[in-house]
Amino acid sequence: MAPIDGTFDYDLAVIGGGSGGLACAKEAVNHGARVAVLDYVTPSPQGTKWGLGGTCVNVGCIPKKLMHQAALLGESIHEAIAYGWEVPSPEAIKINWASLTEAVQNHIKSVNWVTRVELRDKKIEYINGLGEFKDPHTLVATLKNGSKKELTAKNIVIAVGGRPHYPDIPGAIEYCISSDDIFSLGYPPGKTLVVGAGYIGLECAGFLNSLGFNATVLVRSVPLRGFDQQMAQMVTNEMEEKGVKFHHKCIPLSVEKLESGQLKARWQNTETGKQSEDVFDTVLMATGRYALTKALNLPAAGITCVTENGKISAATEQTNVPHVYAVGDVLAARPELTPVAIHAGRLLARRLFAGASQHMDYENVATTVFTPLEYGCVGISEELALERHGADNIEVYHAFYKPTEFFIPQRNIRNCYLKAVAERAAPQRILGLHFVGPAAGEVIQGFAAAIKCGITMEQLMNTVGIHPTVAEEFTRLNITKRSGKDPNPASCCS
């Protein structure tokens, strides 16, 4: 029970040892708070588990970027031939899946270790247990051996994140993997069906295909739902041209294991009703994620601000129980991005323990989809701009471009495209920047700061670019969609 004299074991207890929770805990300690972090990873349906650090470090951004890099390097080896490198037997070049996953997992384990050491050095108590509420100030942690540990805290932060959702079809949980499993998969995935066309599904299909594994994607509605759909089309066009197969308007029906060990997947086109099937070595579910709130016993704390999908609705991270907060992917209607969770966690800790008042600004957060041809964006999509402001009040500047590096190996440039969505009235404040091309994340990060500062088209056009780079293409934008002029580049250096 929470103490009646107002003393607590900790000033802050954080449930969840991912990016947001750890950032909040470390910042709180910097301001003199006594802090505990509870973290426990329930194994995936296929038995995969991992260490401290949350989704990003273990089964998200970090291993995804490393797999993406491995895929890009494989393509670069073949491109090197056009640049004069003598590569013996290029047709024999292939990925060693076991070596790749071992290298990725070794890096992740090193990060797990550094994280634990940092918590110890900062004197943050790390409890490797599954936490739940007993009352508004008391948590119970179930440890690996089944024993229970109780603790009380003046403030509690829920930062449990989420896990992959499995569709309710025969064979999904028994035979399919998810992003929880792919980065440590103990065998080459072979011919793979990816169910879902959000950014996780497309990223996985993209690097698997580039690593030499046949990849097929089932798209239920549209690819990259919530992103600018013209840019999403560029991304999937590039993937199709590289060999990824797409089945649009399709939902999975069942997955059956054959005597050969392979998986027979069946799906249905929701427009025509036609059913199809094929045999795969691996089926990867990427049909969204759900928040891990059910196991928290939230009613015991009096927390009622929970949405139908289990997320917590808290405008300023504060729940309906004043001393209980939430950060990260568990929050409703917030970007599910690691840097968002980190920044929100730090700001919350400063408000709680340093007298600060700054709140997280969830608008204009940049992000990048690490597909074979990357897509980076900041601000709103063209569709949302039209919906909010009307077509007469929006100007869209756009261009195709030719990355210098693509010329010699004669790489496809059809999908290298960018656009700026701006207010039509002077000075044309920019509402969104969108870029499909190489190193999109590196390109868009700097422009994110400019968007925060309210950059206008006039300022962008008067910025001198760095030549030759792909990022400079934003400074060269001058053709509007409204004009009907050809957005293809006429020359390189004039």
TrEMBL record:
Cofactor: FAD
A GO molecular function held by the record: flavin adenine dinucleotide binding
Lineage top rank: taxon: Eukaryota
EC class name: oxidoreductase
EC numbers, comma separated: 1.8.1.9
Cytoplasm listed as a keyword: no
GO cellular component: cytosol; mitochondrion
GO biological process: cell redox homeostasis; cellular response to oxidative stress; glutathione metabolic process
Coiled coil, from the record: none
Broad class of the protein's primary localization: mitochondrion
Subcellular location: Mitochondrion
Domain Pyridine nucleotide-disulphide oxidoreductase dimerisation intervals: 365-476
Reactions this protein catalyses: [thioredoxin]-dithiol + NADP(+) = [thioredoxin]-disulfide + NADPH + H(+)
Signal peptide feature range: none
Keywords associated with the record: Disulfide bond, FAD, Flavoprotein, NADP, Oxidoreductase, Redox-active center, Transit peptide
Residue ranges constituting the FAD/NAD(P)-binding domain according to the UniProt record: 10-345
Function (record text): Thioredoxin system is a major player in glutathione metabolism, due to the demonstrated absence of a glutathione reductase. Functionally interacts with the Sod/Cat reactive oxidation species (ROS) defense system and thereby has a role in preadult development and life span. Lack of a glutathione reductase suggests antioxidant defense in Drosophila, and probably in related insects, differs fundamentally from that in other organisms.
Stated family: Belongs to the class-I pyridine nucleotide-disulfide oxidoreductase family.
Protein name: thioredoxin-disulfide reductase (NADPH)
Provenance organism: Parnassius apollo
